[in-house]
Amino acid sequence: MFERIRRRLLRTPLFYKILWANIAIVGVGAVGGTIITIWHVTTFPDDLHYPLIAIFAGIGVLISIVVNQWVLRKALDPLDRLQAAVDAIRSGRSDVRVVLGDNSDERFDRLADAFNQMLEQLARDAQEMQQLSRQILQAQEEERYRLARELHDEAAQSLTSLLVYIRLLERARNPEEAQRHVQELRRLTARALEDVRRVAVDLRPTILDDLGLTAALEWRVDELNKQHGLHAVFTAEGMEQRLARPTELVLYRIGQEALSNVQRHAFASAVKVSLQHVGDRCILQVADNGVGFDPAATDRADGHGLGLLGMRERVAIVGGELEIVSRPGAGTTITARVPWSHQEG
Ligand SMILES: Nc1ncnc2c1ncn2[C@@H]1O[C@H](COP(=O)(O)OP(=O)(O)OP(=O)(O)O)[C@@H](O)[C@H]1O
Ligand SMILES: [Mg+2]
């Protein structure tokens, strides 16, 4: 019972704490002063009472200062704790949380709760960022490995064969033999050139810089039709002007990843790629009629599948948004909407 009253008193707002303290001082002063004055007047009727008034005034002021200072110090203690937490965070600690204790004002509690929630959110964001950078580094390594393999397996193989044929050419005994080797050399050189070009184009298609997004996506779709026998269609509307380079690159990479996903996961028989200029937006859509998937299940950044995550990140960089509509058995449609910005120069 006493404890409950104490807790309630401690938790009253700051204004009431000061009010109650001052009422108590005035109350005690008035009652105590009157009792002592009556006693003094009746006991020493002939005395002067001015010194007594001065003593009362002095004691009253002293008590008021001490009590008010004590109440204020206690009441503002939560702010000191908040400040201490801020200082700890500034000095690099991230595990700090503010605990205000029993005598805190409700408004300070709300402030501390918001502060703690903000810290939790920051900690979560930092963890996600860390995981993302780990994934990006891993993806970068994988990409380097893939390129190294491709250069080694294809271009280097062709160049080695070239060396062999050059040696054979050196040792050719008659013009017919030499002619045969030269033909083979030409064929191998063309293949090596093709391999190197393919790796370079994969890294960054010059067609994107030279002819623009529409041509680059059209070329991707053509390649897909050639390689995999699935029927891919490309349409473009209102794309007479070129987009700013960063936006073109973002949309191209999204198209590239979406088409690579179709190739690798969708088992689709048809895919439609469309690029449209609508109002102040550019919309890229890649829709397949394949097996589909549950987008919610791939939302977690759990170390697999950077493709969709990368698409989202890229779209966000140019201020757009990405929509993934898919259901198992019902195909997949990926839509990227980005603000239209003209290419300068
Ligand atoms: N068009 C699609 N059809 C069916 N499933 C898809 C399609 N696109 C994505 N998925 C599913 O979503 C998952 C995540 O795709 P995401 O592109 O993020 O990763 P990934 O292709 O597996 O790997 P990465 O792109 O990093 O090489 C895929 O593993 C696949 O299961
Ligand atoms: Mg992918």
Explain the overall architecture.
This protein has helices at residues 2-10, 14-43, 50-90, 106-170, 175-203, 206-211, 213-228, 245-266, 307-317; strands spanning 231-237, 270-278, 281-288, 321-326, 332-339. The chain is of the alpha+beta class and 345 residues long. The chain folds into 3 domains: 2-104, no CATH class; 146-201; 208-339, Heat Shock Protein 90 (2-Layer Sandwich), CATH 3.30.565. α8 packs antiparallel against α9. The protein is elongated and about 150 Å long. The relative contact order is 0.06. The mean pLDDT is 86. The site of magnesium ion has 4 residues, from α8.
Query: Which residue ranges are poorly predicted, with pLDDT under 50 across at least 5 consecutive positions?
Result: none
Main sheet, how many strands, which sense, barrel?
5 strands, mixed
Structural class: alpha+beta
CATH homologous superfamily assignment of the largest domain? Histidine kinase-like ATPase, C-terminal domain
Assign the CATH topology of the largest domain: Heat Shock Protein 90
| Relative helix content | 55-70%
Mean pLDDT, all residues: 86
Annotated CATH architecture of the largest domain: 2-Layer Sandwich
Taken as a percent bin, the fraction of beta residues is 5-15%
